[in-house]
Design goal:
The complex is a heterodimer of chains A (356) and B (585).
Chain A lengths: L3 E12 L2 E13 L4 E5 L6 H9 L6 E6 L2 E5 L2 E2 L7 E4 L11 H11 L4 H14 L15 H13 L5 E5 L7 H18 L2 E6 L2 H7 L2 E6 L2 E6 L1 H6 L4 H6 L4 E9 L2 E4 L2 E4 L11 E6 L5 E3 L9 E11 L4 E7 L2 E7 L10 E5 L6 E3 L1
Parallel strand pairs in A: 3-9, 3-10, 7-8, 8-9
Antiparallel strand pairs in A: 1-2, 1-4, 4-5, 5-6, 10-11, 12-13, 12-15, 13-14, 15-21, 16-20, 17-18, 17-20, 18-19
Chain B lengths: L16 H4 L5 H27 L13 H8 L1 H34 L5 H13 L2 H12 L5 H10 L11 H26 L2 H9 L4 H12 L1 H17 L2 H7 L7 H9 L9 H30 L19 H27 L9 H5 L4 H4 L3 H35 L4 H14 L2 H15 L10 H26 L2 H9 L4 H30 L2 H6 L7 H10 L3 H25 L9
Helix pairs in contact in B: 2-14, 2-18, 2-19, 2-20, 3-4, 3-14, 4-8, 4-11, 5-8, 6-8, 6-12, 6-15, 8-11, 8-12, 9-10, 11-14, 14-19, 15-26, 18-19, 18-21, 18-23, 18-25, 19-21, 20-21, 21-23, 22-23, 23-26, 25-26
Classes of the chains: A alpha+beta (356), B mainly alpha (585).
């Protein structure tokens, strides 16, 4: 039995006389113990979907089943407090008038758990997020990262079937965010709670998720593992939104070759493809190999000119003019390039995505 | 595309029992509860307009336009209309000038003393209007005013140079009283203004005056307009100064005309023309109210920075500092300290005399000893009852209104917001008048409300809903919705979330609002005079009753007692708002 099943969810609202479909026939299913991520730009419907799962919004249609219990669908609508879920909000939602302990104990107190049991379980939860010893502090005395961990402890203290994370790291600074990403993923694995994560941050999605659903305009446009999403984007949108991508239009010659303005290129084999189809090729900046001297016997080679090279520490980002477009190539920082240099870009066939 | 579309089959789906039973939502329940006061507010206004079209304003009177024609046709009534316009105009000019000037001085120059001035201004709002009115009479009455007498003696004048019991004089005193309110609102606007906007103007080469004229004042326009609207409504509404300064001279404005017409010393009460007058006032109030709300909305459009901006570098006063000091000291001396001392002086004398060595011989506590204490204690008891009950009811009603206005999803919430705003835009006098008439004609027998304390408390609470809702709306908007949602996600029901999360977080605003309304209830003379009876006599009414029957010394004594009663509550209030005294109003 899946921890969460969402089927045909839709929700619309009227703004300034136009009907906006916030969620448009969204469906997915979570597997036990995984982190499933809804990734997309703001306004794509990911947060609305999460809030519908939480019960904070009532969807117009569709069904939501949590661990075999129908919580939304038809006339059924279970209020959020009756759903077996824990949630971490973007702003954390830590109550400023309570201590750390009282914040974490609240779900158990509401559930009328015996006092001794509460103490034990809260201490356990706080220890899990490394907040032991902070019990009697006022929650406002905590730093942003600590508040975030407290919110997590509070969400987990009831041992819910499902954990919902709404942009949980977006309020932290860059360094702390990277550290918390690893910590959160490790903790989730340790506890094994099935998690639905919502984020617009591709690094967060790629590094933490078991599977990702890329959303756009209320719909899921691609679902897959982080590797599939990044390396084999199914649409221009997915390729563009997740990471930086260089695009090239072309027409199929046969199953393994595509004709483009830069000449014919080898692409990964697609037996079912028919010649004459218009396709879009996508290559990641780090997949491009940059040569300063024209190499011999290398296929998929295009000539370009360095417009600008930007040293960003762990790499050098070269903006290369190829015919009438500018491509980005990420190279080793030691590469001695300067504006105006003539270079050759190699497009390894196995790293080209062919988007129909 | 590899979107999984799960089959519609799932195995054991058992909706829990509680899911199928729809429970009423929290805002929905509160909307039903708040509907009663909302209907009362609108109903009272509708009633007043309706009475305006009935002969003599009696519900069973003949339908007529006579009341409106005499409002504009009858020369006596027309004079009252003109008086009201002049009186309000003078009050507003004085209040806006002093309030804005002091606010700019404190917030934008290096004058200093910010906390002291702000606290003094809060106290100034709480001083009862009739108190200042009495003080100014003792200072500048053409016959008994001490300063007038001195001036006449010193320069051998034919007649007193200043006549404070004139229309302009009344407007001036009311304006001084309202300047504290304007100060509070304008200085709050100035504090919320991002200083970078003004500094940018200064960096562009504009002088201090130019910045003030072209940047500062236009940006605080909503604040200025709001304070003008509130001050104007209060000026129209309040009875204290028109009664004490105008009645003996037969100078009537809207509120005192309404009072006298409804309580004539001889003949039958006339409700028709006051109702017609009120109907016009309601129209004007609603028009101004809507204009103000539109200004607020458009003001938000170009609100560059949300929340508190940085304060700009202060303008250095330099050699103008002396003038600034003279202005501030002069303001407090004339608006508060001298009137207060005069009331104290008169309370120690058997009859009104200007301060002199001879008069000092007559000083005694006789006025206090000779007070009819059973009368005063009755007033005290009622005052305490009103002071506790009215704000409590008002706070509960305002909470319901605010929850609906801020947290409900339906469009009906705008209606609640608007209704709660009405008592702010429309003079309270009109609500009192409507309630009095309704109680007179429609509640008889055992449930008779006419002249009862319940009616007094109810009307005061309804009027106070405007202030309470404004405070709680702001308070609720500051509580992030996710704080309540995380309670729901923790398994708490909506009511539990309100009880355990929202109300505790609102507590500072709750306490503050309650105390402020309690103080305003105690100082109010308008509503208790209009709808009160012997049974509901409050201290403020007691003082007015003594004053109107010529017992000026005793009246002064009662006024001072009342100020004494307010003192402890004021101290608590100031302690609670220590960090930000300007939050008032």
């Amino acid at each position: 039995m899946a921890p969460l099943t969402v089927e045909g969810l839709h929700q619309a609202f009227t703004a300034a006389d136009t009907v906006v479909k916030a969620i448009d026939e969204v469906g997915f299913e979570l597997r036990e113990g995984e982190i499933y991520t809804l990734l997309g730009p703001s306004g794509c419907g990911k947060t609305s979907t999460l809030r519908a799962v939480a019960g904070l919004e009532r969807p117009d249609g569709g069904r939501i089943v949590i661990d075999g219990t129908l919580v939304a669908g038809g006339p059924v609508f279970v209020p959020p407090n009756k759903r077996d879920i824990g949630m971490v909000f973007q702003s954390y939602g830590i109550w400023p008038h309570m201590t750390v302990f009282a914040n974490a104990a609240f779900p158990l107190r509401v559930a009328k758990v015996p006092k001794k049991e509460i103490r034990r379980r809260v201490e356990e939860a706080l220890a899990a997020v490394h907040l032991d010893g902070y019990e009697d502090r006022m929650s406002t005395q905590l730093s942003g990262g600590q508040q975030q961990r407290l919110a997590l402890a509070r969400a987990l203290v009831r041992r819910p079937k499902l954990l919902l994370l709404d942009e949980p790291l977006s309020n932290l600074d860059a360094k702390l965010r990277a550290a918390m990403r690893a910590e959160l993923a490790a903790l989730q694995q340790e506890i094994g709670v099935t998690t639905l994560l919502v984020t617009h941050d591709q690094d967060e999605a790629l590094s933490m998720s078991s599977r990702i659903a890329v959303m756009r305009a209320g719909r899921i446009v691609q679902e897959g593992t982080p590797r599939e999403i990044y390396q084999r984007p199914a649409s221009r949108f997915a390729a563009d939104f997740v990471g930086t991508t260089n695009f090239l239009d072309g027409v199929r010659c046969d199953g393994k070759r595509v004709r483009t303005a830069l000449g014919e290129l080898d692409v990964p084999g697609a037996p079912a493809a028919t010649a004459g189809d218009a396709v879009l090729l996508a290559v990641r900046p780090e997949a491009l190999r940059l040569h300063q001297v024209r190499p011999e016997g290398v296929p998929n080679l295009v000539r370009g000119e360095i417009e600008r090279s930007m040293f960003v520490g762990d790499s050098v980002e070269c903006h290369v003019r190829v015919a009438d477009v500018v491509w980005t190539a990420r190279q080793d920082p030691e590469l001695p390039v300067a504006s105006g240099d003539e270079v050759w870009l190699e497009l390894p066939a196995e790293r080209i995505s062919v988007i129909a | 595309m590899t979107v999984t579309a799960p089959e519609r089959t799932s195995a054991t789906e058992t909706p829990p029992a509680s899911a199928t039973r729809r429970r009423p939502s929290l805002p929905g329940t509160l909307a039903v509860l708040a509907a009663f006061p909302a209907v009362a507010i609108v109903g009272l206004l509708v009633l007043v307009v309706y009475l305006g079209f009935r002969a003599h304003g009696q519900p069973d009177g003949a339908l007529t336009l006579h009341n409106f024609t005499s409002l504009f046709g009858d020369s006596q009534v027309w004079e009252v209309v003109v008086n009201t316009v002049v009186y309000v105009a003078v009050s507003l000019a004085v209040a806006l000038f002093f309030g804005t000037a002091l606010a700019l001085l404190v917030e934008r120059t290096d004058f200093g003393w910010e906390r002291t001035v702000t606290t003094a201004m809060v106290l100034r709002i709480l001083i009862p209007g009739f108190f200042t009115a009495m003080g100014w009479i003792f200072l500048f009455h053409p016959r008994i005013g001490a300063i007038n007498q001195w001036l006449v003696e010193a320069f051998a004048l034919e007649k007193a140079p200043v006549n404070i019991v004139s229309l302009v004089g009344m407007g001036f005193v009311e304006g001084l009283a309202l300047s504290a309110l304007v100060f509070s609102m304008v200085s709050a606007s100035l504090r919320n203004l991002d200083g970078a906007l003004e500094e940018a103007a200064r960096a562009s080469g504009a002088g201090a005056w130019r910045v003030l004229r072209t940047v500062t004042l236009p940006l605080i326009r909503p604040g200025l307009l709001g304070s003008a609207l509130f001050a104007g409504t209060i000026a129209v509404s309040s009875l204290d100064i028109p009664l004490i300064m105008g009645l003996s001279n037969r100078v009537y404005v809207f509120s005192s005309y309404l009072f006298v017409a409804a309580n004539p010393s001889a003949g039958r009460p006339e409700h028709g023309i006051p109702a017609a007058f009120s109907a016009v006032m309601i129209l004007i109030g609603i028009a101004f109210g809507l204009w103000y709300q539109r200004t607020l909305r458009s003001g938000r459009k170009y609100q560059v920075v949300a929340g508190k901006g940085r304060q700009p570098a202060r303008i250095r006063l330099g050699r103008w500092r002396v003038a600034a000091w003279a202005f501030v000291v002069g303001y407090f001396l004339w608006s508060t300290i001298l009137p207060l001392l005069m009331v104290l002086w008169i309370s120690l004398l058997p009859f009104v005399q200007k301060p002199s060595a001879a008069a000092l011989q007559a000083v005694s506590l006789d006025n206090y000893r000779g007070l009819d204490w059973s009368f005063v204690l009755r007033g005290l008891e009622n005052s305490v009852k009103v002071m506790v009950l009215a704000p409590t009811v008002a706070v509960l009603l305002s909470l319901a209104f605010s929850f609906v206005a801020v947290r409900a999803r339906g469009r009906y919430r705008y209606a609640y917001d608007l209704v709660a705003f009405l008592p702010q835009a429309i003079p309270g006098t009109i609500f009192a008048f409507g309630a009095m008439t309704a109680a007179l004609y429609w509640t008889r027998g055992w449930y008779g409300l006419y002249g009862s304390l319940a009616l007094l408390v109810g009307v005061m609470a309804l009027i106070q809903v405007a202030f309470g809702t404004r405070m709680f709306n702001a308070g609720l908007l500051q509580i992030h919705a996710e704080l309540e949602e995380s309670a729901a996600m923790s398994g708490a029901s909506a009511w539990t979330a309100v009880r355990r999360i929202t109300l505790p977080l609102l507590r500072p605003v709750l306490t503050y609002t309650w105390l402020w309304l309690a103080l305003l209830s105690l100082r109010d003379l308008t509503v208790p005079t209009l709808i009160g009876s012997q049974d509901t006599l409050t201290l403020s009414v007691a003082s007015w009753t003594l004053f109107s029957s010529g017992q000026v010394g005793a009246s002064s004594a009662v006024t001072l007692l009342m100020v004494g009663c307010m003192a402890p509550v004021v101290v608590v209030f100031l302690l609670l708002t220590r960090t930000n005294p300007g939050k008032a109003v």
